[in-house]
Amino acid sequence: MGARRRELAVLERDTAPLERIRTPFPRVSYDEAVEILRQRGLPFVRGGDFGSPDETALAEHFDQPVIVHRFPAASKAFYMKADPERPEASLSVDVLAPEGYGEIIGGGQREDDYDVLCERVRAHDLSQDTFSWYLDLRRYGSVPHGGFGMGVERVVAWMCGLAHVREAIPYPRMLHRLTP
Q1: Residue 154: inside a domain, yes or no?
Q2: Is 83 within 8 Å of 70 (Cβ atoms)?
Q3: Can you give the residue range of the structural domain that contains 84?
Q4: Number of structural domains, the chain?
Q5: pTM, whole model, 2 decimals?
Q6: 37 falls within a domain
Q7: What span, in angstroms and rounded, lies between the C-alpha atoms of 71 and 129?
Q8: Which domain of life is it from (predicted)?
Q9: How many whole angstroms separate alpha carbon 13 and alpha carbon 160?
Q10: Region of residue 143 (left: phi > 0; alpha: psi -120 to 50; beta: else)
Q11: I need a surface site. Which of 13, 73, 114, 144 has the fewest CB within 10 A?
Q12: What is residue 172's predicted lDDT score, i.e. its pLDDT?
């Protein structure tokens, strides 16, 4: 917290939940997360992606950010690499924030094999033409690589204790305003 405590006080942010956070964050597999949801009585169907109530329940269970890894390959994007030990799972990860803020980071290892990518595009019933630019990036070889996306507005909303993520958007787009 340090020097930022004053700024959070201006926002009337209760800093106690932030002060309880310790690293490293808990890490659980998708399968372990599903078991936690079932133990908490949530009607989650294995194989799907988590919805807002599921993410909230998982973060509440740990009372701090939690890392969930190895989601089912079928629930993730076609470019996610399959787990070599469990091909039905992907080498993917989500970081869930506590206090109901949900997923703040999503990422994973990307598929680098051109032939596997082409098959995935077909399996997901996507247009080869639409993704030709992406496939061309791998056509002549690639290296193992990964990527992630962080929802900056979601992180800001969580850290500041804002009621809704839209309060953290620096240049909101609205029906009457489409440019900054």
Answers
A1: yes
A2: yes
A3: 2-108+146-162
A4: 1
A5: 0.90
A6: yes
A7: 28
A8: Eukaryota
A9: 6
A10: beta
A11: 144
A12: 80
Domain presence at residue 70: yes
Report how far residue 40's alpha carbon sits from residue 78's, in angstroms, rounded to the nearest whole number: 31
Please check the confidence at residue 175 and state whether its pLDDT lies above 90: no
Residues 102-145: tens digit of each pLDDT = 999 999 999 999 999 999 999 999 999 999 999 999 999 899 99
Rounded-to-integer distance, Cα 144 and Cα 142, Å: 7
Count of helices and strands (H, E) across the chain:
7, 7
CA-based torsion, 15, 158, 95, 107: positive or negative? negative
92, amino acid identity: S
Question: pLDDT of 51-61, one tens digit each?
Answer: 999 999 999 99
CA–CA gap between residue 18 and residue 64 (Å, rounded) = 8
Q: Identify whether 24 is preceded by a cis peptide bond (ω within 30 of 0).
A: yes
pLDDT(177) > 80: no
Q: Let me know: does 71 contact 49? Beta carbons within 8 Å.
A: yes
CB 17, CB 98: distance < 8 Å: yes
Residues 6+ apart with CB under 8 A from 161: 8, 11, 12, 13, 14, 99
Backbone phi and psi for residue 130, each to the nearest 5 degrees, phi listed first = -60, -35
* Nearest one of 68, 156, 56, 63 to 100, comparing CA atoms: 56
Residue 171 lies in a domain: no
* Residue 106, both tokens: 């999503």
